């Protein structure tokens, strides 16, 4: 059966969608200029030439607005990563992971305020942690899972297509094994706990390196963190048995 074409939005609905988009874009500008503590509905309304009460017709609260800004930022970052992944030549998961990791660092180091909202503690000053993370259906949770899925899918493909060394489940610390089992039970694809342990270890190294650079915690030793980041990528390639996929960054 042929599907009927979607009914076009009314003029009023289009205007509302445009206003919602402008509010979120303005909120992002306020975030970059004033930080999360300055991200108040009154500040957003002032920049838009609106009254703060008028914003409540579009967002229920400051928390509601920040939730949607967080979700949009996750989606923006994920779009960047997926575009880099899909343009990789050759399209092998090891090489794609290398390029995606670099794209993640590049976005992070050029979007400090936005990165802090997503991956620092800034958002938790506005939104309850239970609404930001986990397996719920709130906008940040859905968008966050999509972001994490880019990395998890590539590591999963590496394992399924060629394999890499993983610890035996019986060799995992029981407390770690129990937590991994609970986590893996929520995932759409079943992989051995050893694989997920390796994935988590790799993510901690990659994410930790980027966080330390963005938040200035490597300045005691490094003025330029890129060579150290590349060394970490080569080390992760060894862990995942894709060291041969490494290519130096284009100059």
Written overview of the protein:
This protein has helices at 11-34, 41-48, 52-55, 62-87, 93-110, 112-119, 129-132, 139-161, 174-184, 193-214, 226-239. The protein has 2 domains: 8-59, Orthogonal Bundle (Arc Repressor Mutant, subunit A); 61-245, Tetracycline Repressor, domain 2, CATH 1.10.357. 65% of the residues lie in helices and 0% in strands. The chain contains 11 helices and no strands.
Secondary-structure map:
Elements: H1 11-34, H2 41-48, H3 52-55, H4 62-87, H5 93-110, H6 112-119, H7 129-132, H8 139-161, H9 174-184, H10 193-214, H11 226-239
> Unreliable stretches, pLDDT < 50, 5 or more residues?
none
- What is the C-level CATH assignment of the largest domain? Mainly Alpha
What would CATH call the architecture of the largest domain?
A: Orthogonal Bundle
Order of helices and strands: HHHHHHHHHHH
Tell me roughly what share of residues is in helical segments. Answer: 55-70%
**Distance separating the two termini:** 53 Å
Helix segment tally: 11
Please indicate the percent range of residues in DSSP E strands (runs of 2 or more).
under 5%
Number of strands: 0
SS-based class: mainly alpha
Reported for the largest beta sheet, the result is: none
CATH H-level superfamily of the largest domain: Tetracycline Repressor, domain 2
- Rg (C-alpha, Å): 21 Å
| CATH topology-level fold name of the largest domain | Tetracycline Repressor, domain 2
The average pLDDT value, as a whole number, equals 91
Shape: globular
